[in-house]
Amino acid sequence: MKKIELKIVFTEFDDEKELSAVEQELLQKAREASSMAYAPYSDFHVGAALLLENGIIVSGNNQENAAYPSSLCAERVAIYYAGAHYPDTAIKTIAITCRSKSFHVNEPLSPCGACRQAMSEYEIRHKSNIKVILMGETGKIRVMKSISDLLPFMFKAEELKKI
Ligand code: THU
Question: Do the domain assignments include residue 155?
């Protein structure tokens, strides 16, 4: 029997002004994206902005549907847009933020498991870590250097090849 401990390192900032200029811009783009979300059922508006290695920023927001499971989270809208339009370009950083119509979000958003899985595959695809910046409407900013810090033991394509 072997007991293994897993360590995750992340950083927290009290003020977004402590982030680099481009990271502040990315958070702002995520905020702008959240304001255009289509979330009439949850009233929870999420925005995600991606910085590509060519300097381009793309963003997305959650798109809900009356058939609830047909909805899609902001992170996947943004990352699939990047995959569709810039298939060969690595993603350097993703900023994700949210706001609710019914309460004030003072904690960093925690991306759902499906989005963690989807974003992880882009790290593998481009062999490049994606830095994650998480924030609510206000409050601290949480930063991870890789999606894998959010999803250890992700399901990988190589598992499909196992016999
Ligand atoms: N949502 C996101 O867009 N990203 C997340 O990481 C968590 C949840 C959306 C899905 C749904 O439209 C709303 O937030 C409430 O769950």
Answer: no
